Amino acid sequence: MSAPAASPTGASFRNLTAALFLAVMWGLSIPITKLGLLTLPPLTLTGLRFLIAVPLMFLLVLGKQRLPLRAFPKVAALGILGIGIGQVAQTFGVVGTSASVATTISAAIPAFVVIFAAMRLKQSVSSIQALGIAAAFVGIALVAWGRGDATSTASQTSLTGAALVLLSALTIAFYYVWSVELSERHGTVVVAAWSTLFGFMAVLPWTVWEMSRVSFEVTSVGIASAVYLGVMVTVAGLFLWLHLLRTVPARIAASIQYLQPIVGVAAAAVMFGDALGPLFLIGVALVLIGLTLTVATRRKQKTVN
């Protein structure tokens, strides 16, 4: 069943405020992850995040259509891809990068979605889109190299860390594209809840292993970070996004993608003192320009078809 079309008055002050709130919520996700990693190891933080998110998601699924047994293998694979690989790679990548670098690399996810949609959903890629994707890639490279002088451990960036965040962006983009097919058959909320559960189940054994091998201190900051990521980013963010898609024109809902990296980079500079050198700033600009070209062109294509 397709989602209802946005109403003509969808772009109300209330909905615009909700879109801005979502941009801030999601933009803060990587800086908050970095904050949680100061006291919790990567798998433990990831496991705790989804331990909080899964029960809340299934509360919201009550009364929805059931997931048929034949769909379980694909939905399980989707969860393992998006969480077991994508979110875990992102968390380990954030360990080895500054929050500002990780935020900017992750901002390229929409460009990767265009590539995977062309490959799997047979959507065409225009020359403008290709130019935008190339600009985003160049921007990512400049961000990785132009991070400025690291003044603290939290601001240091390694190529391995940047590569893991890039792997996460690729994986999550493919997760989004693949989930389109499954959501059309079984419902977005149902697929999101079950894939999150399967992803959590894949991460859980490794989380238990890490907790038994790595010494760490449970602090209020670490717990608060996990709660924020589980409740605000994973659960509230998803359902607010679905609400916006139903009530706001697509061009407005998509525009929040441009605000998230700006929020994340600004938050990282305040929270961790990330140094933003000139190459870094040029790279951020190229990523945002690239995303504008890819997403804006897709919107034009949708209105023609």
What does this protein structure show overall?
This protein has 13 helices and no strands. With about 300 residues, it is mostly helical.
Mean pLDDT: 81
Q: Supply the helix-strand structural class.
A: mainly alpha
* Main β sheet profile: none
User: How do the SSEs run, as a string of H and E?
Assistant: HHHHHHHHHHHHH
Shape by Cα distribution: globular
Percent strand: under 5%
Please count the helical segments.
13
pLDDT < 50 stretches: 1-10, 298-305
Let me know the number of strands: 0
Helix content: over 70%
Q: How far from one another are the termini? A: 20 Å
Radius of gyration: 19 Å
What are its keywords?
globular; 305 residues; 13 helices; disordered C terminus; mainly alpha
Briefly characterize the structure:
The protein is mostly helical and 305 residues long. It has helices at residues 13-27, 29-36, 42-61, 72-95, 99-106, 109-120, 127-145, 159-186, 188-213, 220-247, 250-254, 256-272, 278-304. Helix 3 (42-61) crosses helix 10 and helix 5 runs antiparallel to helix 12.
Q: Strands, helices and their partners?
A:
Blueprint: H1 13-27, H2 29-36, H3 42-61, H4 72-95, H5 99-106, H6 109-120, H7 127-145, H8 159-186, H9 188-213, H10 220-247, H11 250-254, H12 256-272, H13 278-304
